[in-house]
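Data availability (excerpt). The following record was deposited with the supplementary files.
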Amino acid sequence: MRKIMLLAGAVAVLVTLTQTAPRHLTVSRKHSDLIAKRIYAYRDWQSTGVRVDQGDLVEIEAEGEWLYTPDEFHGPGGHPVFPAASFYPISSGSGGALIGRIGEEGYRFIVGKRVDMQAPQKGILYLRINDDILSDNDGWVAVRIDVTETEESLP
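Predicted structure:
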């Protein structure tokens, strides 16, 4: 009988705690709240897992630092002095900048710290550092991605 009373008391305490505990339910309203990913400087094209359709509005923001040149960390905007070489994935812009691609072999573009663009084609969004040799890089940048469908979006 004593065990039953202790069990009943424990159940009563649990019921009271669950009813009086504050209930916080957070519902994400923006796609960007759901997508926060690290892009590593020493890896090739990295899938974000985000699929875009042609015509979608794509917003990418990045922050953090990665090692692109010896002993120099830079942000996703790339090196402030060294431009990208002709043999980099994108030969315009800064060396060490964050760049993107839509699809396996698709459209490439510079992201830097932030880009707002309309997707020219459909596909998975990939990101990486604008560099030719990745093995001597280190660090990562965090990216937030927001995709908004438009009337021009094609499924």
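Summary of structural features: Residues 54 and 150 are 9 Å apart (CA to CA).
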